[in-house]
Here is the input.
Amino acid sequence: MRLAWGQLWAIVGKDLRLELRTRQVWMSMGVFALLALLIFSFAFDLRVENKAAVGPGALWVAFIFASMLGLGRNIAAEQERGPMDRLLLCPVDRTVIYLAKVIGNVIFIGVVEAVALPVFAALYDLPIITGLIVLITLLGTIGIAAVGVIFSALAANTRAREFLLPLLVFPIIIPVVLGSVRATEALVNPIHGDPPWLGLIIAFDIICLSVSAILFQFVVEE
Amino acid sequence: MKTVTRAPSGALERDTARARPAEQTRPGWRTGLAGAMKRYGPYAEAALGAVTAIGMLLTIWAALVYAPTDLIEGPVQRIFYIHVPMAWLAYLAFFLVAAASVMYLITRDDRWDWFARANAEIGAVFTTFVLITGSLWGKSFWGAWWVWDARLTTTLILWFIYVVYLVVRSFWGRTAQGARNAAVYGILAFFVVPINYEAVTWWRTLHPSEVLPLGGTPQLPPAMVIALLLSLGAFTLLFAFLLLQVYRLERAQATVERLRAQLEEE
Here is the structure.
């Protein structure tokens, strides 16, 4: 058990160090998320009366598109430079590799979100910077990463992997999209008797993480 | 010809390597079953086809003539005898895709993969018809082709999952890796659908409620229930018949690709 923890953090640390060296993925994801927020403010008429309804949706679409970018690049880089094959040669359990990749991606995406959130709050002038938004974002990001990591591994060994990834991910993460957008909306505009969206995201996270952790070994099998 | 099919090479050879010798060498009920299938299979299939055709004709009669016209919804309600059985079978196909995917990952027998693929194809077609017939009904009764109701939305998402499954399978090709990938996608998608349904139900709901409440007295007049059960039976036969055909098509395509791969090697 302690060995597995060590391996987990070693892989996460390796991925973070690799990324810190170039910062390509972080930069492109961050700029992309900010650009998406900008485009949304042109696409929707953000007057006072409808920005509370449109804002959370725009925020999450920006997050999800940026995550797709990050997940796609992540795995493409693994395939090009080849550390995935070497990682698979190590005596490490496949589940540990999967969980490490999920944690790594949650950190990647989380950093981008931490930058984009204050900008969003300022641009859209919405009071969403509370303690709860951190929890919602974290849970939503775990859901996206749990599905994204296994599907980017599925898409990795195909031609046209960049556009297969969103195709695979989008129909599956709809509960996360619905849950996070509604939970964020409830922060801006609390409705009495709102269903427990956070519980739904937690259920999604648990199911996707456990099922994917079991299935990941079949994806990377040679 | 025989020497070509016997020569083992590559991963695609697995199905013959596993299936054929078992049928030929192991005595017992398996051999008997395989022999019986070979001898009587075509007749059984023709009989299934004939019964399906009769059932479909009976369904048309029952739906259009036998069943009484609904007082509130009018004649358009008759679409329900096609819509409901297809929806149930589309959900069944979705379950069978996931079950066959699990079996494939355990046994690595290509036949499970063909079965999963055949179910996905028929499920996609049935779901398409469910959405179309539902829209026709909705336009008449709700006045709109589409509403964002929980069950409609879940069915639409299901349709997307099927379509994505078929699209990515065409990218992955008929390799062992592709079959594993598809199995992983099929299983994960199956686990997510209930959460999806819950999410969309919280979001909104409008669909007419269940027509046959379990344990309670049916809300429908007996003639309608009989017509529904008849059409359910006929559509189940149709489903089985189509499944058999598509499964055989999958097997034939796998054989063709294997032979082509061997020719290219030589």
